[in-house]
Design goal:
With 458 residues, the protein is of the alpha/beta class. It contains 14 helices and 16 strands. The chain has 2 domains: 26-90 and 252-455, Zn peptidases (Aminopeptidase, 3-Layer(aba) Sandwich), CATH 3.40.630.10; 95-247, 3-Layer(bba) Sandwich (Glucose Oxidase, domain 1), CATH 3.50.30. It is 38% helix and 24% strand. The strands form 2 sheets. An 8-stranded mixed sheet has the order 1-10-12-11-13-16-14-15, with helices on both faces. An 8-stranded mixed sheet has the order 3-2-9-5-6-7-8-4, sandwiched between helices. The longest helix has 36 residues, at 2-37. The chain starts with a helix and ends with a helix.
Length: 458
């Protein structure tokens, strides 16, 4: 009996080592395919250069839908289809204009209307400027804001290592600033761009209004111009005025689609693992890092599986979400249909933090899965992508939390230090994506999807 127990234990250990060895070989093959014969970079080139900016409701957004559907069909995925939805349709219009006024001197500064903002009057707005760092300071000023432009000038916290934390600590002034300023009678809002560098590229982004509160125009100002405006205000105060003009408009909602490609599971086809990014982008640039990289990496995961003839146990879906930037309606529709169709989703992973050097993954509100995934660190360590920790996943995945109980949500985590240099700005172009970093990310995501497919989430 003792000999039998020892034999059984040795057999289990040997089997475990063999399994780990086969996993190492498989991960190595993912990286080989991605780095030697990857398609993600050239696919990104096409998306950026042949299609370009893809704001929801635009002609380019529809072109991106058609392109990504055909691409996945050409790759021979088992099923490729569209999910219909209605999306917001906001247009920037003619280029914005703004300048600082000191007496007879006018200093041009660069601004960009925030997504969803109304236009200024046809002649623009000229008014004194009140600079604040946060909503508490704004409220303390009170009635003194009436008839003026509120200038929100809270920078990123440079002490935070993760720049997404710094972004989270500053972004409410962009999203809610116009509402809070309008409550006190302001006529317009200018917000410091959401970036940790000083340059002359204004960074747009979504903002919102509130029922019952007067709508006032809102724009982002470049960090270089924000520094200049703040300096002028500190010296000359009420003698400084700002002029700005923008021509944006909100049109009726437009028809659009999520785009989905699948490789059907060979053992448990009703079990679904989702990997995705969002197809839409802001209109100032090509949406390369936000989120062209996530889109092309997600498609590449399924293509790599096809190239290697890997037959997943569960169904793997690549999802190109529409309308992440100014509405999240694609994520909401995907979750709605998942619930309506009683789909069994095991896990969902989103790549929406740029195509920079991969570092690891974040697991959202799932401590059991986090502990389970951490067992794979030794397999991921050779590729320097073994940082597995608790954190947020992706905006498009949020609606799945309540729609699909028990699903594990995962975020792909590249290095964050350069992301906000280009986020929502005119510099988010194909030329600022590194080919090797993009391909490493695709292989890293493929590795995580493979491990989940083979070993589950707990």
């Amino acid at each position: 009996m003792k000999f039998f127990k020892l034999f059984a234990l040795a057999f289990l250990c040997a089997t475990s080592l063999m399994a780990q060895g086969s996993d190492s070989v498989m991960l190595r093959q993912f990286y080989n395919v991605a780095l030697e014969e990857g398609h993600s970079y050239e696919n990104l080139r096409h998306l950026c250069k042949q299609i370009g900016p893809r704001l929801s409701g635009s002609k380019n957004a529809q072109k991106a839908v058609e392109w990504s559907k055909k691409l996945m069909e050409d790759y021979g995925f088992d099923k490729v289809y569209l999910q219909e939805l209605m999306v917001p349709h906001w247009e920037r219009g003619a280029k914005e204009a703004s300048f600082i006024i000191e007496g007879n001197t006018k200093i041009p500064v660069r601004i960009a209307a925030l997504g969803g903002s109304i236009a200024t009057p046809a002649n623009g707005i000229t008014a004194q400027v009140v600079e604040v760092k946060n909503f508490e300071q704004l409220k303390s000023i009170g009635a003194a804001v009436k008839g003026k432009i509120v200038f929100f000038n809270r920078p990123f916290d440079a002490k935070l290592f993760d720049t997404f934390e710094a972004y989270s600590g500053a972004v409410n002034q962009r999203g809610q600033g116009a509402v809070e300023a309008a409550k006190l009678g302001a006529v317009g809002v200018i917000v410091r761009s959401m970036t940790n560098i000083i340059d002359d590229n204004p960074h747009t982004g979504g903002m919102r209004y509130q029922d019952g509160v007067t709508k006032i125009p809102a724009a982002a100002i470049s960090t270089k111009a924000a520094e200049l405006l703040s300096q002028k205000l500190s010296v000359n105060g009420s003698a400084v005025k700002l002029y700005f003009k923008q021509n944006c408009q909100t049109l009726p909602d437009a028809l659009s689609y999520n785009v989905i490609g699948e490789i059907r599971g060979s053992v448990n086809p009703d079990n679904i693992i989702t990997v995705g990014g969002h197809l839409d982008s802001w209109d100032l640039a090509e949406g390369a890092h936000d989120d062209g990289t996530g889109v092309t990496q997600s498609i590449e995961v399924l293509r790599i599986f096809k190239v290697l003839k890997y037959k997943p146990q569960n169904t793997i879906r690549a999802v190109m979400f529409m309308n992440e930037e100014n509405g999240l309606r694609g994520g909401a529709k995907y979750a709605e249909l998942a619930k309506q169709n009683n789909e069994k989703h095991i896990a969902a992973l989103e790549s929406d933090e740029g195509g920079f050097t991969p570092r690891g993954f974040t697991i959202e509100d799932a401590p059991v899965a986090l502990a389970h995934f951490s067992k794979w660190k030794h397999l991921l360590e050779p590729y320097k992508v073994s940082d597995i920790e608790a954190g947020v996943s992706g905006s498009d995945l949020g609606p799945l939390k309540t729609a699909v109980p028990g699903i594990v949500l995962i975020g792909f985590k590249p290095d964050s230090q350069r992301y906000f240099d280009i986020h929502h700005a005119s510099s988010d172009v194909f030329e600022n994506v590194n080919k090797r970093e993009l391909e490493l990310g695709a292989a890293s995501i493929a590795s995580m999807i493979y491990l989940i497919d083979k070993y589950g989430t707990k």
